[in-house]
Each structure stands twice: as structure tokens, then as C-alpha cells.
Amino acid sequence: MPRPIKCRKVCHYPKTLEFSPADKSEDKGPVFLAVDEYETIRLIDREGYSQEQCARSMQIARTTVQRIYDNARQKLAECIVEGRTLKIEGGDFILCDGQNTKCAHNGCFKKTYCLKYQREKGENTMRIAVTYENGQIFQHFGHTEAFKIYDIEDGKIVASEVVDTNGSGHGALAGVLNVLHADALICGGIGGGAQMALAAEGITLYAGVSGDADEAVEAFIAGTLEFGTEANCDHHGNGHSQGHECGNHGCGSGNTCGHH
Predict the structure, then answer these.
(1) Is the whole model's pTM more than 0.85, yes or no?
(2) Tens of pLDDT along 145-191?
(3) Among 40, 76, 84, 117, which residue has the fewest nearby CB atoms (within 10 Å)?
(4) Which residues neighbour 99 within 8 Å (Cβ) at sequence distance 6 or greater?
(5) Order of strands across the sheet that contains 18-19
(6) Which stretches within the chain are classed as H helix?
């Protein structure tokens, strides 16, 4: 019986999920780059990590990193040489929750949030995040400068706090919500890539909502919140391909990731 594949730790979900050639007339079909393959490219080629540092960050063996990285580079070369579309999706991975002491990146924003916001979440508490500006629901998820976080117990708001995003954007914002232990997000417009990032973090989305933030949460508690199923921001990446859900969900084919 083959040994189960170990899920690879990924810092956050990619912001852009699809890259297409300008001339699609001879496109031979997409090449699929797994999220864990993307992470090796990001860490080694973008951040300048050695393969050993990359292995520590992803919590896997260096030989595994080398194999994943080689596969990723081959796929990128295929796209560039043959002019094929690149789509990022799938793979065996789990998203970082900011509590990884072995992370090679000292400036990790998730670590910062873990240290700054350590408010305990009760066992029977539901935590709702709302994109927030001057008491209203901010309408563009990727540009929100703050979330208002609500703790709900027994059908009542028992605590709330406004949290600065510190300029984190798009996919990184989903990571902020994960570190804050948010169960759901209420927002206005949101792009397809950000929706996939939230799904990967296990966060339920209620998009297309406007108006007063406090009133929206009260409506959510009462079961009367009106939200839209089509709430994409046109200026965000498309990313409408099916994403991959980790954390509390299955990872890969027949493999299970730990909780993030």
C-alpha cells in the first residue's frame, strides 16, 4: 500500500489563478499548475529561498521540493514555449495559519496577526467578518483596509472589534481572516480568485451585501440577510476554475490535510 502523500504548507492562496497568451488562436489547451507547485516557484524564484529553506517553509523533505520544483519549471516552460494557458489549481496542500515556528519568512503577516490578535474564540462562538469602512460594508474586498469582527453566541453579538488589514490584498486577505479564526465573511463585490482563496481557508462567503455593517450582522443572525450569488469585482482576476479546499477538507485524492 503506497504511503499517503503529506500535504505541503502554502503561505496563502495565489492572487491570480489563470494566465493566457495574447494570441489564443493556436492554444493547445491549458497547463495545470498545482498550488504547491506554485508555492515552490514563489519561494525559490521570487523570494530567493534555497531549496532547503523552501522545504522548511513547506514542511516537507528537500528531495520532495526538488521534484515539485522541477515539475513546476517544466510546466512554465511548456506554457512559454508553446503559448499555452496556465491555470493554477489543485494539489496536496494546507494553508498556513501563522503559527508555524519553522517558517523561514520572518516578515510573515500571518505571524504578525497571530501575535497582535490573540482573542480567544469560544467553543460555541461563531465569528463573522465584515469588510468595513465608516460603519458601512466596504464594497471591494481586495481593497478593504479593515474588517469588523463579530463574535456570536446564542443568537447574540457578544463582542466586536475593528481590525486593520495593514494593506494586505486579495488572496492575503483570506489568510488574515483565517488567522482571525473567522467562520464567515460578509462583503460587497469580490473577485473569483479571492472567492477561491476563501474556500481554501474554509470561510463561508456572503457577498453582494451593502449598507450598515452592524445591521447586516443582525440580519445574518435573524436569518434574513439578503446576499447575491453573482458578486464578482470586474477589476479582479477571473479565476473561475474549480479551486481546491484544504484544512478541514480532503487534500488531493484520498488524502486528508490537518486543520489550519
Answers:
(1) no
(2) 999 999 999 999 999 989 888 765 555 788 788 888 899 999 999 98
(3) 117
(4) 111, 114
(5) 18-19, 86-88, 31-33
(6) 35-41, 51-58, 62-82, 109-116, 171-179, 192-201, 213-222
Q: What is the pLDDT of residues 54-100, one digit of tens each?
A: 998 898 999 999 999 999 999 999 999 999 999 998 888 887 766 55
Residue 115 grid coordinates: 501575535
How far separated are the first and last CA of the chain, in Å rounded? 27
Q: Cβ distance 173 to 12 under 8 Å?
A: no
Q: What is the maximum alpha-carbon separation in the chain?
A: 58
- 87/92 Cα distance (integer angstroms): 16
C-alpha–C-alpha distance, residues 11 and 130, integer Å: 23
Considering only CA atoms, which of 168, 113, 178, 179 is closest in space to residue 143? 168
Cα 141 from chain centre = 13
Residues 81 and 73: their CA atoms lie apart, in Å, by 12
C-alpha cell at 114: 497571530
Alpha carbon distance 213, 163 (integer Å): 14
Cβ–Cβ under 8 Å, residues 199 and 260 = no
